[in-house]
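Z., the sequence and structure:
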Amino acid sequence: MAGRVKQRRGLIETSHAKLDALVYTNSERRGGAAVILHPYALLGGSMEDHVVAELFRAAASSPAFSLVVRYNQRGVGRSSGSMNVRGKEDMADVLDVVEWAAEQLPGPDKQVAVVGYSWGSCLAAYGLSHPAVAAYVGVSFPLGGLSFVLQTRRHFGEVCRASHVPRLLLIGDQDQFTKEEALRQAVLESGGALLRQDDSFEPQADAAAAGAATTGPGAGAAAAGAVGGGAASPAPAAALPGAERRQLLLRVFPDSDHFWMSHASLAAEYAVAWLQSLLQPGPQAGTEPGAEPGTAAAHAEAAGTEASAEKPAAAAGDPPQPAGDAAPAPPAAATLNSAQVVVTGAYS
């Protein structure tokens, strides 16, 4: 039984890069995959960031996920390449890793959640174009600070346009890089809604109405009609109409800042509970009871070695930063070749 639950560190090798990754797999589950992205590398961000580690832990503990991966972006840790000011190459890597994660899931119904913290929430936006992505979470989206340099508002636009996918933003009311009111207004202007400050995942009625009003007459209703109702979800999200589950949602946490030094586990548990309420594990055809269904561990060398969970390092880096070229358009998911996405070399 224990052999079905593994955590390994190795390289996700794509046609573009070799990415230093920590991968959790549980073949006893019939869940989806979660891809977790770390803060800005040039300010010390890595997959060892304590918020990223908490998100990884919470997702690995949830029955909604049979695979969870966090990885170092280019030039960080053992990842190949060099750090890029505006993350052009990192955007391409997001789609590659999402494709890889989806390929590890047996059966035709593959669901991947993209979860980013700080600058990672900007990069995660580019995973939304992949057909396997079923949900998005952005923790401390850096809409302020040096947003004009990194064009984070452009990345925010990618999040807003993905109305086919449920999207959740989490922010502390004392965030140093994004004013709560600025993000709140941006969400409402995009037809989104504010969530109650509890665990119900229910929108504040007045805020939801304000969001519909700011987008013009009938704009909120038109967006809702376009997505329609989806499959039933477990409580509490099941109580919401399908359109509201696919809204852009914002949850504000009191007494929390950008770094979540005292509340990282609270934010992570909330994010994963929301994802769990949306993503329903289902039976997977062709999976034998004792088989490892194409997990990272099955593709790693030295398959007999299990890595113990690593203690996350303290938060190092984050958001907005230096200048460079204009942000590129995301690469099309259709151009990915899954045969070029493999995991090689397990190491402790």
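Residues 2-347 form a domain with the Rossmann fold fold (CATH 3.40.50.1820). The first strand starts at residue 5 and ends at 13.

Let me know what you think.
H.
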